[in-house]
């Protein structure tokens, strides 16, 4: 096993990389980062990723490691030839949606879900949560409108755009996303989850909330 | 003039594209988007950019348009051969920092600056502002630590990583960024601003708060 993904189940950013690895057919293994015990804030971890975040992909064969889910996806595409788009324009359109996801969708969904589910109830900043949820409605609407009449976000195949934007959208913990209110997103998530090899985040990566229950 | 950038001065995301265009040596012209009068929310504009945001780059010679500052920078690098990094690993490292910027830095700085400066005082969500400012301190610390002993974020030259992360950091309006508290960021911003051809956002793009004073 040459590709190791340092990740944890609750991390939608880790899921973007784990799902790309799983669907790429590359051999890989998850390595649990005990984020909720502070494992991502240790000097040892920050020596690997100064950004102090999961996921981290380590390619021992090539003595190479890379962080940021979108950059890991780029490397997985480099190794597998998959998910990057079929032309320079498609590749840039994939990048555009990966950036949209990082800017407006997963970044907001991830922090909002964390605040609503993984902080003690008396420590949840309700105004910030409501503000983030409002911003997220705009992001869902943009994605839902784009998916009108489309099977996938870019072109005719699954790309890193799909594998990025779905990062937080399969999780059961509430963060204000009403899948039924966005029928094109709902159908696209179903389409992706019916793809051979797809797995739910909690089936693909170690660690989930029940471990801490 | 074949490259038109639809932009406005207050937009740090527009600035990322405008500064890349200016420093690339490509011929371009800014086209004012009157964002504060709702110009980015019109059907005409959304027909160009369903994401409803500036900037938008239009290449009339190639009948091509692209949005998202990081994707526009990718296209500018495609046209100019500049700012993308000098190897596949550098290119991916540039992408990693552009994603970090979109995820943690410019996305948070842009909205926080908007809330603190461009909303009526009685409509400013103070808890959300404070929460965002707290998250931003972590992003500044990551960038400041990375810049220790470095001239530029990736490699030995200005890349899109620099031109992305600086997007909001030259603006005079307060959003909780204390440049003096992050000496490596301070020196890097000075280094970039002393690069021949560099211009301040309000000197590079039409529109600034004094127009509405």
From TrEMBL, chains A, B:
Gene Ontology terms for molecular function: oxidoreductase activity
Listed Pfam families: GST_C, GST_N
Keyword vocabulary terms for this entry: Oxidoreductase
PROSITE patterns: GST_CTER, GST_NTER
UniProt domain GST N-terminal: residue ranges: 1-84
Domain GST C-terminal: 87-213
Class of enzymatic activity (EC top level): oxidoreductase
Superkingdom as given in the UniProt entry: Bacteria
EC number: 1.8.4.-
Similarity section: Belongs to the GST superfamily.
Family matches, as PANTHER family: GLUTATHIONE S-TRANSFERASE-RELATED, HYPOTHETICAL GLUTATHIONE S-TRANSFERASE LIKE PROTEIN
Protein name as catalogued: Disulfide-bond oxidoreductase YfcG
Organism: Ascidiaceihabitans donghaensis
Gene it is expressed from: yfcG_3
């Amino acid at each position: 096993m040459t590709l190791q993904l340092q990740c944890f189940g609750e991390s939608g950013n880790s899921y973007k990389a784990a799902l790309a690895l799983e669907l790429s057919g590359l051999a890989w293994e998850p390595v649990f980062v005990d984020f909720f015990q502070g494992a991502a804030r240790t000097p040892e971890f920050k020596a690997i990723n100064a950004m102090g975040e999961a996921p981290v992909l380590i390619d021992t064969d090539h003595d190479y490691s890379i962080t940021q889910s979108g950059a890991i996806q780029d490397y997985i595409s480099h190794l597998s030839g998959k998910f990057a788009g079929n032309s320079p324009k498609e590749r840039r359109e994939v990048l555009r949606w990966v950036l949209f996801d990082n800017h407006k969708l997963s970044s907001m969904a991830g922090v909002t879900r964390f605040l609503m589910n993984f902080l003690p109830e008396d420590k949840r900043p309700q105004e910030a949560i409501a503000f983030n949820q409002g911003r997220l409605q705009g992001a869902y609407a943009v994605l839902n409108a784009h998916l009108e009449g489309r099977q996938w976000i870019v072109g005719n195949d699954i790309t890193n755009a799909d594998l990025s934007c779905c990062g937080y959208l399969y999780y059961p913990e509430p963060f204000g996303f009403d899948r039924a209110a966005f029928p094109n997103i709902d159908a696209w998530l179903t389409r992706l989850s019916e793809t051979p090899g797809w797995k739910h985040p909690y089936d693909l990566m170690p660690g989930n909330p029940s471990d801490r229950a």
